[in-house]
Design goal:
- The strands form 3 sheets. The protein has a 3-stranded antiparallel beta sheet with strand order 1-3-2. The chain has a 3-stranded antiparallel beta sheet with strand order 4-6-5.
- It is of the alpha+beta class and 312 residues long.
- The protein is 46% helix and 12% strand.
- β2 and β3 form a beta hairpin.
- The chain has 16 helices and 9 strands.
- It has 3 domains: 107 residues, no CATH class; 79 residues, Arc Repressor Mutant, subunit A (Orthogonal Bundle); 80 residues, Orthogonal Bundle (Arc Repressor Mutant, subunit A), CATH 1.10.10.10.
- The chain starts with a helix and ends in a 6-residue tail after the last helix.
């Protein structure tokens, strides 16, 4: 059944990240690795995500996930998990596609419940984070309160001042109170605050017209955002989280999924090699040490249970 919410929304609200990077052909992975990812990332028809609780469990398990990316982008994706197949491709007309519609509805409900983190993070990528991963992403991309005046634009600071007075505001009221009347500058300011992990969308509102209720990230996740983590640890644990679900990383894959630079991704992966968690197969390619090196026979039971739960 197609959601009436989705049909009323402007098409640009449903934009999704589906292109391949610079037209490069997708690197082929061993079949066993693809099957491992099928199990970990719920790319199976028998394990597809249908309910909001299953969506939250999926995000908790993988550690971090995109929302509306498809098989043309690497990494775990809620949309692909809803489809339950590794070759899921987002159709052009997403407004009348039942799987796209269902993913959007789940996203709204997950956002409203606030049990996992959701927002535009580095490079404007909309992502879900399990609470245990928040300190690591904050260590790399977050802006501390004492650095706000140095790193945030005047528009972003105006929006933030207004929001800190009320703690939660709709887009129209927030734009008015902040004094940032230009819609483009206001949208850019909100993106900036989301990428700094200061502001998050708390709820999507569809009547009388589509809007978001915005709130402070520290209101929902005070302990996680207050946890101090050094940069080296953050890189290592983000790399661990991804590798635990991916089984093997291809060159540049971790960087594309997380918006890390390639040197940063390399530092994280090499740290895993040093502690014996990963094995370097080739330049830029790393494999879980728990996977059998002679044939990559997956110990699915132990590996998928452990998943990204080893991240902290």
């Amino acid at each position: 059944m197609i959601s009436s919410k989705l049909l009323k929304m402007p098409s640009e609200r449903l934009s999704c990240d589906t292109g391949t990077a610079s037209g490069r052909a997708k690197r082929r992975l061993p079949l066993e690795i693809e099957e491992y990812r099928d199990a970990c990332w719920r790319r199976q028809n028998t394990a597809c995500v249908e309910t909001v609780m299953q969506a939250e469990e999926f995000i908790e398990r993988v550690g971090f996930s995109a929302c509306l990316t498809d098989a043309r982008r690497p990494g775990p994706s809620l949309y692909v998990a809803v489809c339950g197949r590794r070759d899921a491709i987002m159709p052009r007309n997403v407004q009348t596609d039942p799987e796209s519609s269902h993913t959007w509805i789940l996203k709204d409900e997950v956002m409203r419940r606030g049990r996992v983190y959701y927002g535009k993070l580095a490079r404007g990528k909309a992502m879900f984070l399990a609470p245990r991963m928040i300190p690591y992403f904050k260590a790399l991309w977050g802006v501390s309160r004492r650095e706000e005046k140095k790193q945030l634009s005047r528009s972003a600071l105006g929006v933030l001042r207004a929001l800190r007075k009320e703690w939660e505001m709709g887009s129209a009221d927030l734009r008015k109170e902040s004094g940032v009347s230009d819609r483009k500058r206001f949208a850019h300011a909100l993106d900036e605050l989301q990428m700094a992990m200061i502001v998050v969308p708390n709820e999507a509102v569809y009547q009388p017209r589509f809007s978001y209720l915005w709130g402070l990230a520290e209101e929902r996740f005070p302990e996680e955002l207050a946890t101090k983590v050094d940069r080296h640890t953050a890189l290592r644990e983000i790399a661990r989280c991804f590798l635990s679900g991916a089984g093997m990383t291809a060159p540049g894959e971790l960087a594309r999924v997380t918006a890390l630079t390639r040197p940063e991704a390399g530092l994280g992966n090499r740290a895993l090699v040093e502690e014996g968690y990963a094995v370097k197969v080739a330049q830029g390619t790393y494999r879980l040490a728990a996977l059998d090196a002679t044939g990559l026979r997956m110990r699915l039971t132990s590996s998928t249970r452990r998943g990204s739960g080893t991240a902290m």
